[in-house]
What does this fold into?
Amino acid sequence: MTDVKVPTLGESITEATLGEWLKNPGDAVRADEPIASLETDKVSVEVPSPVAGVMGQQLVKIGDTVAVGAVIAVVEAGGAAAAPTPAAAAPAPSPAAPPAPAPAVPEAAALSPSVRRAVLEHHVDPSTIQGTGKDGRLTKDDVLAAAQGKAPTAPPSPPAAPAPTPAAAPTAARREERVRMTRLRQTIAHRLKEAQNTAAMLTTFNDVDMSAVMAARTKYKDLFEKKHGVRLGFMGFFVKAACMALKDLPAVNASIDGDEIVYHDYADISVAVSAPQGLVVPVIRDAQDMSVATIEKTIGDFGKRAKDGTLKMEEMRGGTFTISNGGVFGSLMSTPIINPPQSAVLGLHRIEDRPVVRDGQVVVRPMMYLALSYDHRLIDGREAVTFLVALKNAIEDPTRILIDL
It folds into this structure.
């Protein structure tokens, strides 16, 4: 027997929550093969098997809190999983024997809490969905995609049945499910509430005409992808434009530490990306020195690894300014919350055609609302508005980004 222990989780992190078991007792495992997933304050961490053999007893349950170094399971080294009895060795069924029962749907315990909740909410059969997570595991996004792709069908006509007596009980029962908050969701809730309680938060808005950036993207996207191996999106333009504006308005890129203001001569841009367990915010370090292509590659890599659960904790530490793109989910306008200890966050929203006045004429343009939430203790309204105007000017005339104007 070999103990499986909770590995070191990173600086200052002493415990985690067991998110799911990836192997069940009796399953064959290879050395270093993941057998469990832990959820920390920031990311999911997989626990590998220390030896090859057979999965033994699981000592903790999904949702339990475990400390670094704690034993959570045992592996029988060198063993092999019991093989099923060959079909040829089984006695032949008699002609009158009833058909074998259909295989059962995988138990809910094999799914993470967020996936189970999505399955129940959307009434989908998890056994019919192809998982895209690590090792083919089912993710919340898989369930949502399956739910959106379901074609509405008319319910089958029930067989004729005698009318129920007046005292018959209702056939449908209302259900509730209590799911423990993941450690990541608890941390997000705590930090967001802390930001509201601490900062003198205010939000200012502007809008931007996306015509020029969209035209540039349409013209160069094929050449860009061919040369750099990544799609040309809008975030590269916004990150570069934000870096220019932050350079001109250093207070927006600063933070408060006690009774001191900390100014940064670099722009470490936190970008919010979607993961199965919630939004995570990895950091593009020294974004001011990067090209649009490098920024797009970095964001694409973050998005892929966030979905796979392989982002590292150090990749989400720090950051001097945050950009959150709610437009990918269809948001028209929002008031984003600051990511402490940062002092400002930029919210991007969906692009939609709206009537605007140009040279005295009403024309239709692809417009986007911008929102800057900021800590009024450090950033004045004039600085916040000037920042958004500088960003707007750079996006509406991308040549400014090229010549740093």
